[in-house]
Amino acid sequence: MNILITSIGQKTNLAKYFRRALANEGGGQVLGADSNSSVLGKHFVDKFIRSPDSDSQGYANWLLNVIEAHEIRLVVPTRDGELSTLSSLVEVAWSRSRCRILVPASETLHYCLDKSRFSQWCHENNFKQPNPLSFHTLKEADVPFIIKPRTGSGAKDIKVVHDWDEWCEIQPVSDKKYIVQEYVQHSPEYSIDLFVDWHGEIKSVVPRIRLSVSRGETIHGRVDLDAEIIEQSSRLARTLGLVGHNTIQCFKRDSAVLFTEVNARYGGGFTLGVESGADTPRFIVREVLGKDIHFNRDQLVDQLEMVRIQKDIFTSGTTRRKVYCFDLDGTLCTESCTYEEAKPIQLMIDKVNRLYGQGHEIVIATARGASSGISWRTLIEEQLNAWGVQYHRLVTDKPFADYYIDNKSIDVLEFI
Hints:
Elements: E1 2-5, H1 12-24, E2 30-34, E3 47-50, H2 59-69, E4 72-76, H3 80-87, H4 90-97, E5 100-101, H5 106-112, H6 115-124, E6 132-133, E7 145-149, E8 159-161, H7 164-170, E9 178-182, E10 189-196, E11 202-214, E12 217-223, H8 227-240, E13 244-253, E14 256-263, H9 270-275, H10 280-288, E15 305-307, E16 323-327, H11 346-357, E17 361-365, H12 377-386, E18 393-395, E19 403-405, H13 412-415
Parallel strand pairs: 1-2, 1-4, 2-3, 4-5, 16-17, 16-19, 17-18
Antiparallel strand pairs: 6-9, 7-8, 7-9, 10-11, 10-13, 11-12, 12-15, 13-14
Helix pairs in contact: 1-10
């Protein structure tokens, strides 16, 4: 099974978790596409493809051709600006290539992509929200209030007005492009990772407090399995017709849940929900493969915290010869299957072969047969040959090495 992540940008974690899901469910490749060929995400996928802009005339045909050429079974959008285009291609992608596009119907996006429409929808469907205000009737008593673009994501162009004189200086602001609401203070803000399967059944809901935010994304968060937030966000998802992984934003003021927006896609802080127990990338992969989703909500880790930090990764083509010892199962190939059915993890094999080509010594270590006494050497050698792995030795113990690369002890994606 192959997956395409569109507008990959810097969304390295999304690639990481979908690659992990594929490794646990029989293998496959994660491809990334972006109109910018210099994005960081290109280094963290199995294959990168330069795409046209999603609003260009040729984008639809380009995407359908990529789906067919690379046998893509799932397309994962990541940017609001492409959701409408991709929603229009759901039926043709399925009929032509049996490919799922992870996006809701256009009727749902009508409200998700416009904060003004979403505010009106909340009013009509009895969902609470921060008090909507009108540009034409604003008065000093309304301070503080917040001004947001009707469309777009992150914190771009959002303005909090704390002083009436300040507001008088920045006018005029067009009510056709912006909305204005009361500014909610002294109440925790939440992002909710909510997953809905293809049949409309809600599988997981993970509210997380946004303790610290940068550029609209959570960089410090904590899981808080608040019963009222779970109930109200589930009702919202059913009423709105959401599907797949969604990121819902709200405040909790006393006992009231105040909804502000719905992102019908993965948000930047989704990893906290996954690590708390709701592994939605794996849910999606299992669904596409026709497998049941096994998930017990009681297994979610409440109060789990996450801090996102910047991390530097260094590479060099001029280092001295070193010994690299690679574990086999889970590092070079998939491990949640029989040995005979193991599939290569191509991005890691490419890395091994680059190190081999640079003159380093490559050792493959395996524990296959350690308990049973069965020798798997012949099969392993055949597999390594078929996968094109370049190496010097295959061993069943842990030899001396400068580096030991094992998926159980390091982040393999960062090593790649």
